[in-house]
Each structure stands twice: as C-alpha cells, then as structure tokens.
Amino acid sequence: MLRTQWMFEVDVNRRFLVDGKRSWKWVKKPVNEVKEGEETRCHWCKNPVRIHRGKKVRWHAEHLETADSETCCGGVVGKTGTKMPSPPRGA
C-alpha cells in the first residue's frame, strides 16, 4: 500500500464524565496517541480501521475492508476516480 493511502488521524471511542454521568464519545486523535485495545474508526467514513505500529514504518491506520478504502476520502481513489467529499469543519 502506498504511503499516500495511510491515515495518521482516527476517531477513538473515549469515556467522559458529563454532569456526573459517564458517557462515550468519539474524538479525533493522532494514531500515535491511540492506546492498545481502544475502539477506532475512520474519521471520514466511520468504518473500522487497523492501527499499524512498527519500528521500521511510521505508525498509521488503514481500512479493514478494501471496499471501504476505495470509497473514502481518507483512503485510496475509488474505481470511478472520485473520492467522497471531505466532511464539513467541526463535524
């Protein structure tokens, strides 16, 4: 896989305390801040991703399914040559 297809930021499901109640919330984090065993997904298409950690390669994330990668703006260009539009700022 080409390095241009790697993602360096993902959504992580983190627990927060809001008004005395625990709630889960998806937050955008760099791949190197993701802890082992945390639930992750693509920031753009919300599909599951795999985190790659290594000594010889920069930490990155890739879609679990090739079909997800082909249609996501965070993945490779699809067979049609088009990508999904980027999400609006703050989404």
Task: Summarize the structure in words.
The chain has 91 residues and is mainly β. The protein has one domain. 7% of the residues lie in helices and 33% in strands. It has one helix and five strands. The chain has one helix spanning 66-71, and strands spanning 9-18, 21-30, 40-41, 49-52, 60-63. The chain has a three-stranded antiparallel sheet, with no helix packed on it. The chain is globular. The two termini are 28 Å apart. The model is unreliable at 77-91 (pLDDT under 50).
Can you give the mean pLDDT?
79
- Hey, roughly how much beta strand do the residues contain? 25-35%
Runs in which pLDDT lies below 50 for 5 or more consecutive residues are 77-91
- Coarse structural class: mainly beta
Sheet with most strands: 3 strands, antiparallel
**Count of separate structural domains:** 1
- Secondary-structure element order, N to C: EEEEEH
Radius of gyration, in Å, reads 14 Å
Terminal CA distance: 28 Å
Shape: globular
Strand order in the largest sheet: 2-1-3
Question: How many DSSP helices?
Answer: 1
